Amino acid sequence: MRKTKWSFLLTLMLVLSVFVAACSGGGEATPEETPADEGTTTEGEATTPEEPASDVAQVLNVLETAEIPTMDTVMGTDAVAFEWGNAVFEGLYALGENAQPVPGVAESHEVSEDGKVYTFKLREDAVWSDGSQVVADDFIFTWQKVVNPETGSQYNFIMGDILNANSIMAGEMTPDQLGVKAIDETTLEVTLEQPVDYFLSLTAFPVYFPQKREFVEAQGENYALEVENLLFNGPFVMTEWKHEEGWVLKKNPNYWDKDVVKLEEINIKVVKDVATGVNLYDTGKVDRAGLTSEFVDKYRNDPAFTTIEETVVFWFKMNQENEALANENIRKAIALGVDRQGLTDVILNNGSIPAYTAVPKGFVSHPETGEEFNDKYGNFYEFDADLALEHWNKGLEELGLTELSLEILGGDTETAKKSDAYFKDQLEKHLPGLTVTLLEVPFKQRLELDETQQYDLQVAGWGPDYLDAMTFVDLWVTGGGHNMMSYSNPEFDQLIEDSKTNLTGVERFEAMQEAARIVMEDAAFSPLYQRARAVLIQPYIKDMFVLPFGPDYTYKWASIEK
Amino acid sequence: MAKYILKRVAFSFITLLIIASITFFLMKLMPGTPFTAQEKLTEVQIEILNEKYNLNDPVPVQYAKYIGNMLKGDLGVSFQFDNRNVTDLILDRIGPSAHLGLQTLIFGAIAGIIFGVIAALKQNTMWDYGSTFLAVLGKSIPNFVFAGMLQYFIGVKLGWFPVAFWEGPSYTVMPTIANAMFTLAVAARFMRTEMIEVLSSDYIVTAKAKGLSSAVVTIKHGLRNGLIPLVTVLGPLAAGLLTGSLVIERIFAIPGLGEQFVRSITTNDFPMIMGITLFYSVFLIFVILLVDILYGIIDPRIRLAGGNK
């Protein structure tokens, strides 16, 4: 009772003070003024002369937008699961700066002449957190689990390149027929269906991480449910996991490369609301916070403000079952008729850039010359109202129509709705006679409509699953599981087929460039923008590398230098 | 009384069964699969996964299985959180939600009653208008606006209370206040109206005439009678509060159940949707029963059905 009395008094005061604060706040301190002075403090801290790293507490405080769906790397499907799995486990290789594969559990590897057999030599000092050695059998056990349809791993397709994997996933073969074998405890031999240029980067993907056979089998249903049901082999170990609230990682003292790991502790808190994250950042509780477009103008000049270009692209899928969209001129008119710069600068306002290519910018480069994938053919369909109109009129003529109405299928988030309205406005303005209607539905429903191909234009996005242009170009093969717009070009199909089977290296890269050119010239779909995210990251955090797929960041090399 | 409660409990089970059935069939009408990586999956993969999770069975078979398991107390395993039991998931998260809800309810109701009584006693004075003003604000300003303001001004600017998280008593203050505004407003308005009516009734005049002090009259006779309608409103409100507020939990980063109400639906996490719906229903039914019983205690004029036989 006494407690209630107290809290009542307290609250009474607070309620009053809130109104007082609210009134005065509205009058003098505009929100824009506040970050500026906080910004200078940050700057002051950041520019203090460099001290030896050992004097600064190597503790990183970050936010995550959701609870970890699973710590079982085999079952992970999203960035949250991948990010923290990547911090506490390690595969044969790991992705370092610029997403280059660096040795992990494997100290070296050899590739056979035909590029199909990889022999990995595992290091002897790679150990689990119970002290036992990470052995080749741990990989075999885990990979067989991934491809076993009984497991229900949704990301198992990422192993499709390993010999027999696809047949096992379809239930036509048994998991023990997977193309992996242990030559001895520290030698793992992997046989692929065909040469795969990017296989090393695949082994850095969390689904490829090892799990200790005896431990997982002993844990049974409980494996990975809590900290005590897990064994780690990565740069960090998880020491505390409060569901929906947060988790704590500590430096792994048994990690083979522990001298490189500088962070002693990472505290992660679940904060779903962007404004809350920003407030926590402003009060110094966290070192990193994501921003949405409405916060960008406020923080643009903050030294901690940065935009990170992602390799996620959004585009119009154009359903070619629709008679009008089966017409190439109509598709080209649509591709040309949207001013993407206006979209990225005004609507998105978070560092996103216009997209004019089938493969995102800055994702992959030529194996020999190092030239960026898209440099060869440049941009397609940059905004051009006159050219759009020309194609439009030609298209209408071919169809024998004077007007047309199309529906844009899009998501139901704030950003999606704003973007859709912009697309409608742009298209109707530049293509006379076109009426655009919008259908905004929840994510799952959009996927359903995509799978049953019930749409005209659809705003859809795609992020890469491995470090190779193929993850983007093979979407559009005839009858492909993600095509779903009845696009078909035999020449394109052939190039993809060749790239997947008998080509390697430069030849393969160039074949994919050709394929990307063809699909763009056909205007099979129309890229709209390449997403970026605006983030506040304290400048004293060094070497927290951004990864283009799977996890967002890697922490192994990160440090705090104040 | 016991007979009455037993009868009510029996009816509750039927209600629950109906709720479970309706939810189940509505859920089956939702588009999409419960698989979190659905955008990456091809039709063939979805088919294989459906087979594994028995989602290819005819709906009546799935229904029978579900109800059977439910009666055994098994709510199934979540799709969003791999291999995690729905019952555990709910129990894990209900703690903070119930804590916040209870605090909100107690604070909101008591503060509301006090504001209401003051307003009634000092009718048409500044006290009354002030309390009315607060109540209007509380009812009309959505709690997320209020929560955001509290967080920014009290948490960031003044630094009196932690901005977010759930780590001790001081962390509960701002969420409680923000969450309680609606309850407070409702309670204050109800209380004022009832008190004014009660205070002008004959038996209060009689009590005063008998020479009882005005404090005794107000508390013993006025307040007790004024509380009756409030119990009706607070009951269902309590069920909502104790099972978590999506908005408040989101803004103050409280690890509660609130968000799952929405998230389980948008992700098609079928077992979780069923689990949460049932949990909420049980709670609501229980609270309504409790309110009916409380009636009898607060107001002797009300006799429960069968009580007089």
Account of the protein in words:
The complex is a heterodimer of chains A (562) and B (309). Chain A is of the alpha+beta class and 562 residues long. Chain A contains 17 helices and 21 strands. Chain A has two domains: 287 residues, Dipeptide-binding Protein, domain 1; 224 residues, Dipeptide-binding Protein, Domain 3 (Dipeptide-binding Protein, domain 3, Roll), CATH 3.10.105. In chain A, the strands form six sheets. In chain A, strands 11, 12, 13, 14, 15, 16 and 17 form a seven-stranded mixed beta sheet that branches. A four-stranded mixed beta sheet of chain A has the order 1-10-9-8, with helices on one face. In chain A, a hairpin with a 5-residue loop joins strand 2 and strand 3. Chain B is mainly alpha-helical. Chain B is 74% helix and 0% strand. Chain B has twelve helices and no strands. In chain B, helix 4 crosses helix 7, helix 4 runs antiparallel to helix 9 and helix 7 packs across helix 9. The longest helix of chain B has 36 residues. The C terminus of chain B is likely disordered. Chains A and B meet through helix 1, helix 8 and helix 14 of A and helix 2, helix 4, helix 6 and helix 7 of B.
Helices and strands in order:
The complex is a heterodimer of chains A (562) and B (309).
Chain A: H1 2-27, H2 33-47, E1 59-64, H3 79-88, E2 93-95, E3 101-103, E4 106-111, E5 117-122, H4 136-147, H5 165-169, E6 180-184, E7 187-191, H6 199-202, H7 213-219, E8 236-242, E9 246-251, E10 265-270, H8 274-282, E11 288-291, H9 293-299, E12 305-318, H10 328-336, H11 340-348, E13 353-354, H12 385-399, E14 404-410, H13 414-430, E15 434-440, H14 443-451, E16 457-462, H15 470-473, H16 490-500, H17 505-521, E17 525-537, E18 541-542, E19 545-546, E20 553-554, E21 559-560
Parallel strand pairs in A: 1-10, 14-15, 14-16
Antiparallel strand pairs in A: 2-3, 4-5, 5-7, 6-7, 8-9, 9-10, 11-17, 12-16, 12-17, 13-17, 18-21, 19-20
Helix pairs in contact in A: 10-12, 16-17
Chain B: H1 2-28, H2 43-52, H3 59-71, H4 86-121, H5 126-140, H6 143-158, H7 169-199, H8 202-209, H9 214-242, H10 246-251, H11 258-266, H12 270-298
Helix pairs in contact in B: 1-12, 4-5, 4-7, 4-9, 5-7, 6-7, 7-9, 9-12, 11-12
